[in-house]
Every structure is written in structure tokens, then in C-alpha cells.
């Protein structure tokens, strides 16, 4: 088969996966979204086939993230199926293989603490005889109350350590909802038993974080696409002063601006997914460009959608409300627009 034919076949498979997931997710509710991904067999997308997974790459998760964004239901897919699966496979042990199998076959959730560098302060790992232990407060651990295991990223003196713990062994726990409908927790660890996966996991953690950023960029672009579609439909139905909103020239201009922002976000998000297999500096530069772009575009599209919907814009009856909240979270998730603009500039200058 020629390269062009292979590309066409791969594109058709991506479209089929997106269409199948999109149909089911848009008819579902928040509680059903994660089981739907399990029924589709994509929870173990990065886990090798010998352990029950699909053995694919993070870049091939694009149609899944687009479907999740279009439905805008919160799931642990990025944290568990992308980040945790990547790191557990990279630093494989007998216990990590067992976890990966349960993730692929049973939908068990693995979560990550400290992937965002801003949340690592005050956490440390130390050895007690033959046993490693972790101390400190793990902050903003998404889905910690439902996780089988938690991976903990620790900044040590000269390297980045990676530990595996059982979140049930936390000595204290404060659970709370996030504004986009997730459930997070702060976990207090007092010499909690841990498995040291790596004493020098910096490069692997950085790559996993970039994969997560690229995935949420695709998700954000899909949310924006939905908001544009829903706002256009609303503007064609809502009447004021004897005509529909869509007939006002100023509204038409705003809808066009929303469309342009959403398309630009979609283009750079796709490029970020493609860059995940490129050298670290190239990957980081493109991913940061995507993250900064979707943060800015998402703010514009979300605000315009709310304003054009008027008083209905933030009611729970409309999906617009949860879409706007999710875009607000994405804007600062794993780094703000300003932080990623600075990272992009530094990597560009270094190159």
C-alpha cells in the first residue's frame, strides 16, 4: 500500500472513531462518559496489546479528545489514559504492569500529582531502609477519590523523582469539586509507603506533560467549534426588533471572529499532536504555541458565546455553561498563556 493510501486509511479510521464516540457522548451524561470510553476500548489506548491495550501513540488520541471536547463531559482520560499510562509503561515494573492491565481491561483510574510544576512544593521522597516513603501535601489531584494508584512527581536536589503510591494510604484528604465538574482532592502524606519508579524522570515527565497539553488543546478547539455552532443556531432563532440576531451586521461580524479563533485553535492543536514525536525542543515550542493560542482563543470564543446568548448564557440548562467553565479551566491548566508564550520564545531563541 502506498503512503497516500495508508494516510487515507488512517484518516478514515480516525473519522470513524470520532463519529462513533461523538454520537454516544453527545447523547450521554457526565456519569456515562468514562464507561463509554471503556466500551469503545480506548481507555487503554497507549497500553501495549499484551496488557490488554491498543498499543497506539498519544498523537493518535486526537479523535478521542475531539469527541470529548464536542460533548464537553469531564473524564480522567488525559490524566489516566495518556499521562499515567505513558509514565507507567516508561518505567515498567511488575506492579506497574498489573496496574496497566487493570486500566486497559477494567477501566481502573490512575491519577498524577505534581505534573504541573507549580503544585510540587513541599513534597519529598526519602528511603527508610528498603522502603521508599513520600511526605507532603499533594494538591489538586484530579479523581483521587476514584484512583487505584497515584503517580507522584517530586522535585529533588538534582533530578525529578517519580513515585507510585496507593492514595487510600493518605493520612488526610480534602475533596472538593472543580468549576468544570471534576472532583479533586488534596492528599496529606505522612511517610506514605511508595514505589520508586525513577530517580531521574524529568525528560519523561516533560514529554508526558506536553502530550497532556496537546490533548487538552484539541479538546479546547472542539469545545470552541461547538460553541460557534450553538451560537450561530441561537442567533438564527432569537428575534429582536422584528428580525433574528443573525441578521444584525454587528452580530455577523462577531460570529465570524469566533469562527476564525476556533479554526486557528483547531489548526495549531492538530499540529501540536503531530509534534509529540519530534525532538523535545521542537515539541515543546509547538505545544506551548498551541497552549497559548487555545487559552486566548477560548477566552474570546467563550465570552462572545455567553454575551450573544444574553441572560441564558450561564444557565445550567444550556451546554454553553459547562463549555465556558471548561475553557476557563483549560486556559490555566498545565501553564497559563503567558507562561507558554515565554516558553515558546525561549525555545525558539535556543533553536
TrEMBL record:
Sorted UniProt keywords: FAD, Flavoprotein, Oxidoreductase
Signal peptide: none
InterPro entries: Acyl-CoA_Oxase/DH_mid-dom_sf, AcylCo_DH-like_C, AcylCo_DH/oxidase_C, AcylCoA_DH/ox_N, AcylCoA_DH/ox_N_sf, AcylCoA_DH/oxidase_NM_dom_sf
Record domain Acyl-CoA dehydrogenase/oxidase C-terminal: where: 207-328
All residue ranges annotated as the Acyl-CoA dehydrogenase/oxidase N-terminal domain in the record: 31-94
Obligatory cofactor(s): FAD
Cell membrane among keywords: no
Family to which the UniProt record says this protein belongs: Belongs to the acyl-CoA dehydrogenase family.
Protein name (database record): Acyl-CoA dehydrogenase family protein
Amino acid at each position: 500500500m502506498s503512503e497516500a493510501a495508508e494516510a487515507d486509511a488512517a484518516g478514515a479510521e480516525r473519522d470513524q472513531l470520532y463519529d462513533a464516540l461523538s454520537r454516544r457522548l453527545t447523547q450521554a451524561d457526565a456519569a456515562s462518559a468514562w464507561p463509554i470510553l471503556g466500551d469503545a476500548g480506548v481507555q487503554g489506548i497507549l497500553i501495549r496489546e499484551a496488557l490488554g491495550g491498543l498499543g497506539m501513540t498519544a498523537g493518535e488520541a486526537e479523535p478521542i479528545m475531539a469527541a470529548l471536547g464536542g460533548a464537553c463531559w469531564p473524564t480522567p482520560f488525559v490524566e489516566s489514559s495518556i499521562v499515567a499510562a505513558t509514565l507507567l509503561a516508561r518505567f515498567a515494573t511488575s506492579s506497574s504492569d498489573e496496574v496497566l492491565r487493570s486500566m486497559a481491561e477494567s477501566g481502573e483510574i490512575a491519577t498524577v500529582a505534581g505534573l504541573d510544576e507549580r503544585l510540587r512544593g513541599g513534597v519529598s521522597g526519602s528511603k527508610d531502609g528498603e522502603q521508599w516513603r513520600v511526605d507532603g501535601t499533594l494538591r489538586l489531584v484530579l479523581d483521587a477519590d476514584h484512583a487505584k494508584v497515584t503517580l507522584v512527581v517530586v522535585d529533588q536536589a538534582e533530578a525529578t523523582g517519580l513515585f507510585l503510591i496507593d492514595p487510600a494510604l493518605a493520612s488526610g484528604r480534602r475533596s472538593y469539586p472543580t468549576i468544570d465538574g471534576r472532583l479533586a482532592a488534596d492528599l496529606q502524606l505522612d511517610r506514605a509507603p511508595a514505589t520508586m519508579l525513577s530517580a531521574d524522570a524529568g525528560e519523561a515527565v516533560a514529554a508526558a506533560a506536553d502530550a497532556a497539553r496537546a490533548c487538552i488543546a484539541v479538546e479546547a478547539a472542539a469545545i470552541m467549534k461547538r460553541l460557534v455552532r450553538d451560537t450561530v443556531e441561537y442567533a438564527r432563532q432569537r428575534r429582536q426588533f422584528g428580525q433574528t440576531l443573525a441578521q444584525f451586521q454587528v452580530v455577523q461580524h462577531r460570529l465570524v471572529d469566533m469562527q476564525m479563533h476556533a479554526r486557528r485553535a483547531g489548526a495549531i492543536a492538530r499540529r501540536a499532536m503531530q509534534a509529540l514525536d519530534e525532538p523535545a525542543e521542537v515539541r515543546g515550542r509547538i505545544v506551548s504555541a498551541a497552549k497559548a493560542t487555545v487559552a486566548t482563543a477560548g477566552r474570546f470564543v467563550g465570552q462572545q458565546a455567553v454575551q450573544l446568548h444574553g441572560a441564558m448564557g450561564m444557565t445550567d440548562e444550556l451546554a454553553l455553561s459547562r463549555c465556558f467553565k471548561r475553557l476557563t479551566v483549560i486556559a490555566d491548566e498545565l501553564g497559563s498563556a503567558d507562561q507558554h508564550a515565554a516558553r515558546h520564545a525561549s525555545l525558539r531563541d535556543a533553536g
